[in-house]
Every structure is written in C-alpha cells, then in structure tokens.
Amino acid sequence: MKNLVFYVFVLTTLLVGCNTKKLIEVEVPLPEEASTTVVKVNNPDDVKLDENSIFELYKLPYKYDALEPNIDTKTMEVHYSKHYLGYTNNLNKAIIGTEFEKLTIEEILNKLTPDNSVLRNNAGGYYNHNLFWEIMAPNKGGEPTGTLNKAIIADFGSYQVFLESFNEAASKQFGAGWAWLIIDKTGKLQVTSTPNQDNPLMQNATLKGKPILCIDVWEHAYYLKYQNKRKDYITNFVNVINWDMVSKKYEAAISEK
Ligand code: MN3
After folding, report:
1. Using an 8 Å Cβ cutoff, are 247 and 143 in contact?
2. Centroid of ligand 1 to alpha carbon of 213 (angstroms)
3. Smallest Cα–Cα separation from 223: which of 233, 215, 237, 238?
4. Distance 129 CA to ligand 1 centre (A)
5. Distance 90 CA to ligand 1 centre (A)
6. CATH of the domain at 120
7. CA of 96 to the centre of ligand 1 (A)
8. Is 199 contained in some domain?
9. What is the count of structural domains for the chain?
10. Ligand 1 mean position to 178 CA, how many Å?
11. Which of 10, 24, 53, 212 could form a disulfide with 249 if both were Cys (CB 3.0 to 4.6 A apart)?
12. Domain range holding 234?
C-alpha cells in the first residue's frame, strides 16, 4: 500500500511537472489576440450622410445582427451602410436646387415622371428601404392581428392565401425589384411587385396604392447568405415581419381615407 501511495505520488509529480513544462513551452494566445477572432458587429448609428443632406437616414432601431439567422449580419451591414447610404446621398444630390427640394418623399415619388431615371432609382431607393427597415424587427413574425387581420381575411380569404400571393409576387419578380402589400384607392389590400427601385406610389406603377409592407428581392438583399436560393430568403422573411408596425401603417392609412 505504501508503495502504491509512493507510485501515485511520483506519477502525479511527473504529470504536474510535464504540464508545467508544457505550459512554459507552448505559446498561449494572449487575451488581446483571442479577442481579435471575435467578429465585431459595426454600429448602424456610425453611418454618416454627406454634408447638407435634406433627407436623413432612417435610424435602424436594431443592430445588424438582430435579424439572424433569417437575414445575416454582413448582408444587413452592407445593405444599410453602403447601398441605402448611396441611394440617400444620390437623392439629396439630385434634388438640391430643383423643384423637388421642398417636397416630402411621397410628394416627390408622386410627382416625378417616368423619364426621370435618377429620381426613380434614388427617391425610390430611399423610400423603399425606409419602409423595409421599418417593417422588420427581431423576434417577430407570426401573423397579423386586429383590424389588419380582418382586412386580410376580407380581401384575400385568409392569411395563408395572402402569404402565398405575396411570396409568389416576390419570387416571380424577374431580376431586381420589390414585392408589396398595398392599400389601393378603394381601400382594398392588394399584392403587387415593381422592378428596380420603382414603387406603387409612382405614376408608372401598374398597380398604384399606399405600401404598408415590402420585401427587397434585389440580389444584394440576400445573396451573401442564400446565393441562388431566393425562395428560401422569401420563405424566411416572414420570420422578421413586424406585423405590429404593418398594422399601425394600415390603420393610419385607412383613417386618412
Ligand atoms: Mn436593397
């Protein structure tokens, strides 16, 4: 027994000795080095417009990583801090010193003629993305409730029928563009889609109305994560729809009528 205790003692000493030796020989990463491997999420509030801008950026009320896994962090960052910033700067540049400079964004969209491609792209890009950021939120999804739910059932038959129609409009939009849920001039809810940065407020829209929900189906909105699988992006998009916000927009628009 004494021998066994002795051997265990020797063995332990050796093991501890080895471990100590190893700890000295092996390079252990310093905490600073380890922290560089953590992906840093940039802050949407750090995005700055050019000076003397008339239209401000919509302040993103959540972080770039907030919509994971449905919309990935990098896509959100590039989309907001590069694409959206670009549309907003170009809109501001295009309206300075013109008849559009004192108008609201809705008035600009209403007034611009289809031959004005700069404003179609950039006033459209600004308005469309503002709505897009606003109607998404983390931990949302589900189904609409209240007045909007009743209107969806009245105008589409059911939420499922609406969703199929919305997803189909998004899937079938050829190339870059948007799918929309709008209130038409009679107050009815309808689904439509538009190419590029056009939207249902523009004169050339095939179906005009007030948008309350949209999905961006430009490749820049999903390609980093979904590549050619646009349908998967569209299917997952329902998980980030902020129906409380869409309902608010619906009720505000209906009360104006
Ligand atoms: Mn976009």
Report:
1. no
2. 14
3. 233
4. 6
5. 14
6. 3.55.40.20
7. 24
8. yes
9. 1
10. 9
11. 212
12. 54-257
